[in-house]
Write a structure and sequence with these properties.
Elements (H helix, E strand, L loop, with lengths): L16 H14 L5 H11 L2 H11 L9 H5 L24 H4 L13 H10 L1 H15 L10 E5 L7 E9 L4 E6 L4 E5 L3 E2 L2 H12 L19 H12 L1
């Protein structure tokens, strides 16, 4: 049976492992290789001795002949199996210890990811973008407290940029209130459409900042000096001289 194409051994200096597996899958498709066991046998036969040795070490305690094709190719578990950890440009003499690989960012001249990347990715992500909008809103939001009997101005929707004076008579919900206008009309408004007059707001803020006076207890009588008539006349004569 004639075969189409040719797959050589894997060379990390020429292509990545992902590209090598993609070419191998096209080879299987062109030659109608559907059996999983046959795909595994072809991969282990053509990948080369160096790659086979590394695959054997990574797959232990399972032998390469017992592992599935996807396991060897690294197509399961988020591409974190088998040869998906290839390639390394230079094979290390020994496996580095955890202490030698921690905090390696301190030895880099520049970070792989900077703030511009994070900003763009956050904007594209539907969940993170909503979290960002809420955080920005909460940062700039101002707490508004409305009380019954408070003098307020309500938005007039009939005429733009106009506000109607009135009194808040009832809070019907966390953000809704009933307002009685000066002409006796009662309307409902959202707190976004209610303003507190600047004079009332300033007075409320000043009142809240004034500390309460603490009474001072006087345990002993205080002597009050009262000049007698002779001393008063003396001071008067000295003043006119």
């Amino acid at each position: 049976m004639a075969t189409y194409g040719k797959i050589g051994e894997f060379k990390e200096s020429e292509e990545s492992w992902t590209h090598y597996i993609e070419r191998l899958e096209q080879y299987f498709l062109a030659n109608e290789v559907d059996e999983v066991g046959k795909k595994r046998a072809i991969l282990l036969s053509v990948c080369g001795s160096k790659t086979y040795t590394l695959a054997r070490d990574l797959l232990q305690p399972v032998r390469p002949a017992e592992a599935t094709f996807k396991k060897i190719a690294g197509q399961t578990n988020g591409n974190a199996d088998g040869l998906s950890r290839l390639p390394l440009p230079v094979m290390p003499d020994s496996v580095p210890l955890p202490g030698e690989t921690i905090l390696l960012m301190e030895h880099l001249e520049g970070t792989p990811v900077h703030s511009g990347h994070i900003k763009a990715w956050t904007k594209r992500d539907p969940v993170l973008s909503q979290c960002k909008q809420k955080a920005v809103h909460d940062y700039h939001a101002k707490e508004r407290t409305l009380e019954e009997g408070q003098a307020v101005h309500a938005k007039n929707f009939r005429y733009k940029k106009t506000w109607l004076p009135g009194t808040l008579v009832e809070k019907t919900g966390p953000v809704l209130a009933r307002i009685q206008l000066d002409d006796g009309t009662v309307i409902r408004r959202h707190q976004d459409h209610v303003r507190v007059p600047e004079s009332a707001a300033a007075a409320a803020s000043i009142t809240s900042e004034i500390p309460e006076a603490t009474p001072v207890a006087i345990s002993e009588p205080v002597a009050i000096f009262e000049p007698d008539a002779s001393s008063a006349n003396t001071n008067s004569r000295e003043y006119h001289q």
